[in-house]
Specification:
The chain has one domain. Helix content is 0%, strand content 57%. It is built from no helices and five strands. The strands form two sheets. The chain has a three-stranded antiparallel β-sheet with strand order 3-4-5, with no helix packed on it.
């Protein structure tokens, strides 16, 4: 698993998520651990390296 820290697009708090680098590109929804709003997360991996990451509000 890969842990990545980023800013929540709703509350702007620093949060972390664990991601699976065995899938090179995926999109899924996970709730913010601080404000509980749903975040659309799109990580992209090459091997075990995170090469792209986007976290955005749902419906934006």
């Amino acid at each position: 698993m890969y842990e990545h820290f980023f800013q929540c697009p709703y509350c702007w708090e620093k949060v972390s998520m664990l991601m699976d680098p065995s899938v090179s590109k995926q999109t899924y929804i996970e709730d913010c651990e601080v404000c509980c709003n749903p975040i659309e997360v799109t990580p992209e991996f090459q091997g075990d390296a995170l090469v792209g990451f986007e976290a955005r509000e749902i419906g934006q």
